[in-house]
Amino acid sequence: MLQTYEEVLNALPLLLKPSDAAEALGISIVASRKLFNAKVIPGIKTLGTRKCVTRTNFLKWLDSLEEVQK
Q: Does the structure show a pLDDT above 60 at 1?
């Protein structure tokens, strides 16, 4: 069964790792890690050696990309 874009985004974990963001964006994990390391996605937090972003910040960032394209 096909899921809508909204269903996929709502199914995201509260804290996204680069692999979660890669899956949501449809890009490779390497590309996602580059976005995290360059802090292109705002609100990235480091937990020990791991980087993550909250679902809220990730979705706000996606919305801001949509506004830029208009």
A: no
* Model confidence band, residue 68 (pLDDT cutoffs 50, 70, 90): low
CATH number at residue 10: 1.10.1660
Q: How far, in Å, are 16, 42, 57, 62 from residue 65 at the CA level?
A: 18, 12, 12, 5
The range of the structural domain enclosing residue 30 comes to 5-69
Beta strands in 19-58 (DSSP E): 45-47, 50-54
Per-residue pLDDT of 36-66, as tens digits, reads 999 999 888 888 889 999 999 999 998 888 7
Write down the pTM of the prediction.
0.80
How many domains is the chain partitioned into structurally?
1
**Tokens for 48?**
């020990």
